[in-house]
Amino acid sequence: MRKLKITELNRLTPESYKKSKKTPLVVVLDHVRSLNNVGSVFRTADAFRIESIFLCGITACPPHAEIHKTALGAEDSVDWRYFEDALPAVRSLQQQGYIVCAIEQAEGSTLLDSLELDKTKKYAVVLGNEVKGVQQTVVDACDRCIEIPQYGTKHSLNVSVTAGIVLWDFFRQLSD
User: Fold this and answer.
1) How far apart, in whole angstroms, are the C-alpha atoms of residue 162 and residue 119?
2) By the 8 A CB rule, do 32 and 161 touch?
3) pLDDT, tens digit, for every residue of 119-154?
4) What tens digit of pLDDT does each residue of 79-108 get?
5) Disulfide-capable partner of 55 in 16, 59, 84, 106 (CB 3.0 to 4.6 Å)?
6) Contact at 8 Å (CB) between 121 and 99?
7) Is residue 59 a contact partner of residue 87, using CB atoms and an 8 Å limit?
8) Which residues of 55-65 are buried (b: 16+ CB within 10 A; e: fewer)?
C-alpha cells in the first residue's frame, strides 16, 4: 500500500467547507481548560463537518496560538460562538429544537454503543471540564446523557478523545 499525498486527498477549501452541508450537530465545550483539547475538538469537528462549536466559561476562544497548534486552521473553518456559561447555551439550543446530550457518566445514561439517532432531528453534545466533567446544572438541563462504555481501570477519557469517539458516531448515524 502507498500512502496518499495531501494533494490526492481532494479536501475542501475553507470557502467550500463553509458552504457545504453540515452534520446537524453542535458541540458545547463546558469549561474545557486545555487549549490543546479545544484545538483538537475544532479539528475533529472540521473532519466530520459539525455545524458549530459553543465555547463556554473558561474555554478559550480563537485566535490563539495554542488552539491553532492542534486545530491546524480548523478554528477558521468551523463556526463557533462564546457563552459565559454553558446553561444558556444549552437552553438556546433546546429553544431551536436541538436534542441536547451531556456526555457524562450518570444515572440512566445511554451507552454510546446502543445509541440510536433520528436523522430528522438536530443534536448537540456537551463535553465537560477535564477534571470535573459537565457541570451538574448543565447535566440537569440536558435532554439525555450518553456514556462511552469503558472496560479498564481508568474512570474517564481525555475530552478530545471523547469528542473524537462521539462525533464520529453522531456523524456516522446522521450523515446521508
Assistant:
1) 22
2) no
3) 999 999 999 999 999 999 999 999 999 999 999 999
4) 999 999 999 999 999 999 999 999 999 999
5) 59
6) yes
7) no
8) bbbebbebeee
Predicted model pTM: 0.97
DSSP character string of 86-112? HHHHHHHHHHTTEEEEEES--TTPEEG
* pLDDT of 14 strictly over 90: no
Cell of 48: 466530520
Contact between 114 and 155 (Cβ < 8 Å): no
Q: How far apart are CA 68 and CA 59, in angstroms?
A: 14
Amino acid at position 26, single letter: V
What is the separation of C-alpha 6 from the centre of its chain, rounded to a whole number of angstroms?
A: 25
Contact 54, 89 (CB under 8 A): yes
pLDDT confidence of residue 176? 79
Is residue 49 within 8 Å of 17, Cβ to Cβ?
yes
Q: CB neighbours (10 Å) of residue 37? A: 24
What phi, psi does 54 have (nearest 5°)? Answer: -105, 120
Kindly give, in sequence order, each residue whose CB lies less than 8 Å from that of residue 81, ignoring residues fewer than 6 positions away.
52, 53, 54, 55, 89
